Amino acid sequence: MARHGGQILADQLVVEGVKRVFSVPGESFLAALDGLYDAGIANIVCRQEGGAAMMAEAYGKLTGEPGVLFVTRGPGATNASSGLHVAKQDSTPMVVFVGQIARGHRDREAFQEVDYRAFFGPLVKWAAEVDQTERLPEYISRAFDVARSGRPGPVVLALPEDMLSAVAEVENRAAATPAPAAVSGAQVQAVLDALEGAERPLVVVGGPGWSAQAAADLATFAGRFDLPVAVSFRRQDYMDNRLPHYVGDLGVGMNPKLGARLRQADLVLALGTRLGDTLTNGYELLDPAAPGTRIVHVYPDQGELGRVYRPDPGIAVGAPALLAALAGAEGPAPRWSDWTRAARTDYVAWQTPRETPGAVKMENVVRWLSAHLPEDAIVTNGAGNYAAWLHRYFTYKGYRSQLAPTSGSMGYGFPAAISASLEHPDRTVVCMAGDGCFQMTLNEFSTAMQHGAKPVVIVANNGRYGTIRMHQERNYPGRVSGTDLANPDYAALARAYGGHGELVERDAEFPAAFARAAAAGVPAVIELRLDPQALSTALTLDETRAAGQAKAR
Description:
This protein is α/β, with parallel strands linked by helices. The chain has three domains: about 1-170, Thiamin diphosphate (ThDP)-binding fold, Pyr/PP domains (Rossmann fold, 3-Layer(aba) Sandwich), CATH 3.40.50; about 185-350, Rossmann fold (3-Layer(aba) Sandwich), CATH 3.40.50; about 360-550, Rossmann fold. Helices cover about 40% and strands about 15% of the residues. The protein is built from 21 helices and 20 strands. The strands form four sheets. A six-stranded parallel β-sheet has the order 3-2-4-5-7-6, with helices on both faces. It has a six-stranded parallel β-sheet with strand order 11-10-9-12-13-14, with helices on both faces. The protein has a six-stranded parallel β-sheet with strand order 16-15-17-18-20-19, with helices on both faces. Helix 1 (about 5-15) runs parallel beside helix 6, helix 3 runs parallel beside helix 4 (about 75-90) and helix 3 crosses helix 15 (about 415-425). The longest helix has 16 residues, at about 75-90. The protein is globular.
């Protein structure tokens, strides 16, 4: 049957199992919008392409299947690049369709013309342009395969508008049926042999391809061999933090004692993580030239093994698949139980709150949320100093209860919370955001209202870009430039959109405010008015400035 390209595309998405796409519409892909009309695929129309891209990325994180995004050419595509960068650095599967100028207009700097292969090449796993309508199923099938395979990530397909509106007779392509990952006995034995020679092992987990079963296998493996387990930046939900073998997260604002333990370890068993600069404090804790410790690196992409650190050995397989085998393996009796207990003790001590200034204290808010949210609640955040309180004081209890950008992208938390609420309308979804972070994507509030998402957003309002101010005071104390913010009345803004708004100015007000927000049945905002001195979990603004002045002398 002859179909136009937009219908061919939509029908192939159905074959790939796509249930929801995110978009900002454009005239360059009208035929695709027409194809979606009858396809039974929900189209979540957003307010700006950056927010739409982050929603699609969050969908990929939540489900393990590619998030799908449609954006128009030129400014639409370039706006979306922020979410593609998150997907690349976070190893999230994603397929992005970009409207393109007609094929006959190329290389004339036509309206909104961009060379997408050149523009997106460094940001994605594969960028291509479809020139023949009849090849759409082939390209789309390959795009989904590439997005899922090896180290998952984003793929971009550009769609010339005349190609998309043209008619062709072509069959849909069957969805891929990937074989289960094969783990060899030699790979399992290599890990056991490394443990045999260790005195101070540290398991570090992260990266793509995880599941609730992988988290359970990790807990079993750690318990069987009495191993301390640390997680990489913003992967705290890979292991129930209440378990005795969980010892904390390696990343921005990490427990200094855990960082020291990474340096002291004689074996690092890296399961799925890339061992990047955030995890290693700028490669200081593990020097790539002379790490001073044995690294067994397990990663699904052979190209990553040995790229920064020389593994001994490198095992090119997905960490969850290897953990499934390790969970039932017999190996050396642990000689490091004291080391593991000490690491756990350090973690528990790190949870003891350090009081910060003001009538609203972030440590109290986060600890209340940790104690009172349902265990399956999903907590999202973007980037900013406010997230350090979440990292330090929130106890993650199950897999996929955390959505946060390892790339450190501001503005991520709110779109991610909308996506999570749409995917899991029965679960509580809470977004933690700073005043600077929230203002980057708060226009998606009307997206949430339109499509029935109902996250609760907690805005930590300290009137500044807190992370940058912290670094500014450390390096140029007292010379404030470009970090102060003017803010709206966030509660009133939420109500203007048709949502629920609350203002909290004292700790005691928060529980009741949260109960009202959670029960509202619409997107809600709780604004926390923070003391300007509450700059970080460790130091006040004045203390940070004084430390910077002392360093400068």
